[in-house]
Amino acid sequence: MFERPRGTNDWGPEEMAKRRFVESRFIQLAESFGFREVSTPAFESLDLFTAKSGPGIVKELYAFKDQGGRDLALRPEFTASILRFYVSSLRSRPKPLKLYTSGNAFRYEEPQRGRYREFSQLNAEIIGGAALPSDAEALALAIGTMRAIGLKQVKARIGNIGILRSYLPFPPADQGVVLHSLDKRNFPMLEAELARLGRRDLASPLRKVIELSGDASVLDDAAKILGAAAKEGLAYLRDLAGLLDDYGIRRSDYAFDMGVVRGLDYYTGMVFEIDSPNLGAEKQVGGGGAYRLAEVFGGEAVAQTGFALGLDRLVMSAEAERTIEPPRPLDAYVVPVGDGSRKKAIQILTSLRAAGLGADIDLIGRGPSKNLDYANAISARFVVILGERELKQGRATLREMANGVQREIAIEDLVDAVRDA
Ligand code: AMP
Questions:
Q1: Cβ contacts of residue 281 below 8 Å, gap of 6+?
Q2: Which residues fall within 8 angstroms of residue 86, CB to CB, at 6 or more apart?
Q3: DSSP label at 363?
Q4: Which of 87, 97, 112, 409 shows the smallest number of beta carbons within 10 Å?
Q5: Which DSSP letter does residue 129 get?
């Protein structure tokens, strides 16, 4: 007996149906927004991720050498791969580029409920649009996906890391360390860094401002604490809220939250996280924002914004709120009775399938009553029983499993009878 590796999952048919339900709602909505699907490799050069996130990322990765001695890593997310793809091959396409992808990602995490070493993300990126409308569009897709899944408990927290950046009078690398300590709510580290930079006085306003979360009044409070440096960034968030109104996104679906920092260096402007409050500790189902990565990978400066939603957590959340629609049951299970009817049974099976119906056939040669038990167990809607005597008259028995009602029917009417029931 082998066990699967720690932090990975096997997903059975029922679970896969739920995952596909959630994924397909995202894909439908993304397509309706004009996003188009891309796919990138599950592993990349290790330096793609260190260029994006610094050498510290390696301990969070599945990094390895291949047999040619190349340093590679399984992707921990999609943005780096998509921006690599953009810079190397998609740069000359008409802008904006709106791309989505869905797949598995890998991180060397301490596994717990909702946190795995292999997990799945739904990802969308907008490259080369103007910042404000692109940010609004990305948020509308992220929040809209939650709604399309049927989730009622949606809470996005929207901040603007540009506000903190313009408040911090340091070069980007030092800003990065301060932002990282704020992201981790590591206040000893914050104090130490600010002391090193000779600006201890900033600790108190920074600690106050990251506590601000709520409706638009939060923006006024932030202005009072941060002063003129925050003016532009706060006005941006007001304008963003106006656009979200136009998209029909309810004000109760999001809060302004000055504490959304997302410590990674490449975020530049609007940043957001989405929680599903019914999930407990691992309640964060997604996050994203405006960033600058194309430049890091050798491309020219264009606005980039995007997000990732965690599929595993969205499914847990949809289960908790009971929004998942059951998969379509098998329409018909075909039972040949006696060897003489198998040939005709396969023809009927094929015509049901050709009509777009879900149809299956007995593969074991069981008797009719065992076959009915099986059809019941797999929740087939109908059973088509083909006895040799009926077949001679061009007829079959159609049994509706929900009520056990059976009738004889001409074979040429079978497809319509199953389809129209
Ligand atoms: P991040 O790229 O860290 O912002 O992650 C985006 C989303 O992916 C998170 O909000 C989670 O829903 C999901 N996610 C990240 N890491 C994991 C993990 N280890 N297991 C399950 N879901 C994850």
A1: 112, 113, 114
A2: 97, 99, 127, 294, 299
A3: S
A4: 112
A5: S
Tokens 């404000």 correspond to 132
Cα–Cα distance, 193 to 203 (Å, whole number): 10
pTM above 0.90, yes or no: yes
Provide the 8-state DSSP code for 170. S
Q: Are 271 and 138 in contact (CB under 8 A)?
A: no
Contact 296, 201 (CB under 8 A): no
Query: Considering only CA atoms, which residue is closest to atom 18 of ligand 1?
Result: 115
Give me the residues paired with residue 125 across strands: 99, 306
Residue 322: which residues within 8 A CB-CB, separation 6 or more? none
Place of tokens 């990565």: 293
Token pair in block for residue 377 = 């167990």
**Residue 216 Cα to ligand 1 middle (Å):** 28
**Ligand 1 site residues, Cβ closer than 6 angstroms:** 77, 107, 109, 114-116, 119, 121, 284-287, 308, 310, 312-313
| DSSP 8-state class, residue 404 | T
- Correct CATH for 13-320 of 3.30.70.360, 3.90.230.10, 3.30.930.10, 3.40.50.970: 3.30.930.10
C-alpha 115/C-alpha 383 separation (Å) is 42
CATH says 332-420 is which class?
alpha beta
Tell me the mean pLDDT per 10 residues along the chain, length 421. Answer: 97 97 98 98 96 87 98 97 97 97 97 96 98 98 97 93 93 90 94 95 96 94 94 96 97 95 80 91 93 92 96 96 94 93 96 98 94 96 95 95 96 96 85
The domain ranges of the chain are 13-320, 332-420
Query: Is the fold of 13-320 the same as that of 332-420?
Result: no
Q: Which helix (H) or strand (E) holds 102?
A: strand 97-106
